[in-house]
Amino acid sequence: MFDLSAPSRRQFLAVTAAAAGAVTILPFGARAAGHAHDTFDTAAGPISISPVSHASFVAQTPVGVIYVDPVGGPEKYSSFPAPDLVLITHEHGDHFNQETLDGIVVEGTQMIVNPAVFGMLPDAMQAQASAVENGGVAVFNELSIDAIPAYNTTEERKKFHPMGRDNGYVLNFEGFRMYVSGDTEDTPEMRALENIDIAFVCMNLPFTMDANTAASAVAEFKPTYVYPYHYRGRDNGTQDPAEFAKMVGEGIEVKMGGWYG
Question: Is pTM beyond 0.90 here?
């Protein structure tokens, strides 16, 4: 376990309830233009989710401001508070960009990354980072963060994300759990997740999985809310989040972010 604790966190208890099969949609361009956000009210205070692009988002939470896979240049984050924590799932350029990190990481920012990314960071930034392997646990401001294996299972896709290298993450707020898939297929570890309140689930070909497979996995682990993200691929591999929303089943609310403005 890696302890990145700073002062104590506030109690974080969810008081949310999903409408069966509900879908929340705003025009992608309108959401992206102003970093539109969704706020989830809890007994401890709100958690705000702001999609930035593709696989990057900002979560403003009771334990601090968390940037997930920030790329695209520091100017994309100029309207947000500086990060207290940066999470990076793996080294691909749509998840890890050193120039962006150079412009957003400040004194006091902590980072949780997979070992491959840790080895690519400059020495000064390594001093602010912890490398967490699949199955490991890190702690930030008493927030426990599990590193969930993220990998391809289809033979011809294993070259993109081999088993054992990349991370997804589960952020264990008290009474409220957030899952970030990173780049992965519908692994047994994903399907076995329990008590997830918010999930961010990738879907694009040939790199991860299609919308049907992603929906099948989500229907099994049943998060309260799910954001389809990372859904543009190549060679007609872009997936339709609206079609995904139709397939996830009742009791799961699909949230549409402005990932591609």
Answer: no
Per-residue pLDDT tens listing for the chain (261 residues) = 555 543 322 222 222 333 333 443 333 333 444 567 899 876 667 899 999 999 999 999 999 999 999 999 999 999 999 999 999 999 999 999 999 999 999 999 999 999 999 999 999 999 999 999 999 999 999 899 999 999 999 999 999 999 999 999 999 998 899 999 999 999 999 999 999 999 999 999 999 999 999 999 999 999 999 999 999 999 999 999 999 999 998 999 999 999 998
Q: How far is CA 112 from the centre of its chain?
A: 13
Q: What is the layout of strands, in order, in the sheet containing 85-88?
A: 38-40, 47-53, 56-61, 64-68, 85-88, 110-113, 129-131
The residues, ordered by sequence, that sit 6+ positions from 244 with a Cβ below 8 Å of its Cβ are 203, 211, 214, 215, 228, 231, 254
Look up residue 77 and give its DSSP letter: G
**CB proximity list for 246: less than 8 A, separation 6 or greater:** none
**Residue closest to 47 by CA, chosen among 62, 34, 58:** 62
Q: What are phi and psi of 184, to 5 degrees?
A: -165, 165
Q: How many CA atoms lie within 13 A of 211 on its CB side?
A: 19
Is 185:230 a contact under the CB 8 Å cutoff? no
Give the up-direction half-sphere exposure of residue 196: CA atoms within 13 A in the CB hemisphere: 29
SS3 of 94-118: the string is CCCCHHHHHHHCCCCCEEEECHHHH
Residue at token pair 């992206």: 32
Cα(105)–Cα(110) distance, integer angstroms: 8
